[in-house]
Amino acid sequence: MDLTPIQKRLLIRRKRADRVFVVLGAALAAFCLSVLVIMIAALIRDGASRFGWSFLTQFPSSDPPLAGAKSAFVGTILVMVVTAATAIPLGIMAGIFLEEYARKNWFTAIIEINIANLAGVPSIIWGLMALGLLVYHFGTGRSILTAGLTLGLLVLPIVIVATREAIRAIPQAIREASYACGATRLQTVRYHIVPYAMPGVLTGCIIAMSRAIGETAPLVTIGALTYVAYLPPAPLTDRPWLLGTLSELTFSEEDRTKPFGSASSPIGGLPTPAGQIEFDVRPDATGPSARTVVSVAASETLTPAALAQAIDDVPGVLTRFDDDGHLRIESELEEWFLISKDSTGLIDAMGMQRGGGKHGPLDWVTSGFTVVPIQMYDWVSRAEGLGFKPNAAAAGILLVTMTLAMNASAIYLRNRLRRSIRW
Amino acid sequence: MKITTPMIDAFKAEASGRLGSGRVPESGQEVSPGGDSLKARVESLNFFYGKFQAIKNVSLPIAENKITALIGPSGCGKSTLLRCFNRMHDLIPDHKYGGRITLLPDGDNLIGPDVDPIAVRMRISMVFQKPNPFPKSIFENVAFGPRLRGISRKDELMAEVERCLRAAAIWDECKDRLTKNAYNLSGGQQQRLCIARSLASRPEMILFDEPTSALDPIATSRIEELMLELKSSVTIAVVTHNMQQAARVSDFTAFMYLGELAEFGPTQKIFMNPANKLTADYISGRFG
Prior knowledge:
The complex is a heterodimer.
Chain A: H1 5-47, H2 53-57, H3 70-101, H4 106-119, H5 123-137, H6 144-168, H7 172-180, H8 185-214, H9 217-221, E1 246-250, E2 275-281, E3 290-296, H10 304-312, E4 317-321, E5 326-331, E6 337-342, H11 346-349, H12 372-381, H13 389-420
Antiparallel strand pairs in A: 1-5, 2-3, 2-6, 4-5
Helix pairs in contact in A: 1-13, 3-6, 3-8, 3-12, 4-6, 5-6, 6-8, 7-8, 8-13, 12-13
Chain B: H1 8-19, E1 38-49, E2 52-63, E3 67-71, H2 78-85, E4 95-103, E5 108-109, H3 117-123, E6 124-127, H4 138-148, H5 154-167, H6 171-174, H7 187-199, E7 205-209, H8 217-230, E8 235-239, H9 243-249, E9 252-257, E10 260-266, H10 267-272, H11 277-283
């Protein structure tokens, strides 16, 4: 190709600039990637020894090799469920309202500016707001509900903004086509706007949930615990009976030796009992839970006194009849003993109090909790010599894995939706 | 420049002149200059976007089962006028209608504040400039209208979809891929799919807003043939930039200029012997 000398020189210079840019870009990309790789490698180096199945199935403990993140893992999942359940529907509906329904006037302009501002509010401020409004004013306590609502509000603007952007990307021609077919506004939103905006909305949800899962400051503010050795109650399970409370029925000296089956027993002639009474035993507040079972044999002659004696034999459990004849089942070690199951029906029949009926499907939201980042921080902040470093690193691996898993599923879902929508 | 605005009365007068020569319409039926019965009557229509007046005192008859073309240079208000018929302007804030568009034979004012725009759109459907199928399957595109009207049984929907696709002359091309995304079709096929979709509400009138401006000549001629087939069952109003198209398909032509109606009449007369110099200049390509 014939070029003048000047053209040639300029061409060489332009091509050199091109190459420099490619090299520079590749170097920067490699740098960013290597930071991530080094970070994950460091986590794995420090935490691999502790990370594993037992890390997920053990409660925290003062003994590093035994200390696990069970409660934090479950707590994070549950808090995320509440966060998603509040932020995603509210955010999507708010975004739809602002884009498809609200008239553009000074009032919606103010709302718009404030949503953008809310996205920039430091998370600790949200924590303070939640402490004052939710914990103290509405009395939601230091619960999963409070945490989920706080994080939900924190990430709500992200979902709203993403929803609005996704809706704006839908060509006006599609709306016109829908209205021209005689659709109402709701039908247009339901059949066209929401489905076509969904991939973009999901992207926003990924970002929102990734932000929420790592948040620590607002949860510390509302009083998340650092040391949780129990799980929130599963939905629809029996509540344990309270220990240390009295039976409603009274047993006179004479009654105590009458078999439960006899008609004159205060219980009123329960058919011959048989089955087991289970005690959930935790030797101390931090130890693993162990199960102790008292077997009650089917017997014509089982008496209240004999039952009391059998229960009394469980290590750490004391039973006695008080002066009025109420049976009292007590624990030596406060609340860490629970009667969790009674297949004989005797405990109920005697009128021992439960911790309040059955667990409803949503009782778990009122439970205390901790989350993985807080658990991690707790381990990091302990003295170097105590050896919690592997635990902290393992918690880091757990958190990164959870985030990646969440993102991967959302990206998969998004790409599947994208495939069916093409402009 | 003074533009004459032919008034509806002129048409009525001309029509009543023809009545004497034999044709006796049913009582109350109104007729167009050609002696055809009317589907709609635009009466002193004004339309404002905010403070800007896009349509100025336009009066115009729409003949039943005929094609009425709206032509004129860009920004003359022809699309705006078309969109008044199915109240598409209701989607934007700050719009204001004035005057009447009377839909016959029942005499409802289409732009009356007490008339539900959704009800209007169920009776008057629209085909747009750029093919705009929904990013869904071919079936779902056509089934949307029937679904809105509460038809949910699969066999009923299928029958309705087939009827519309056949009427839009696209059934043979897509009967084997009804579940495929509508965007797999070519531009011309997409536009015929949009016509099928607009037929699904069994409209009395279809508005075509420059339906072929995004299509190649072969696809264009297929759409034009289709319009000529459809006019036996529906009334058609078409906005077009293409003079030849207006001449080929329409029975009546309205030439608009700067928001006003410059001339209206049978297409042959407008193209062969325009009364207005502006019309003559525009048609002969001297401006626009």
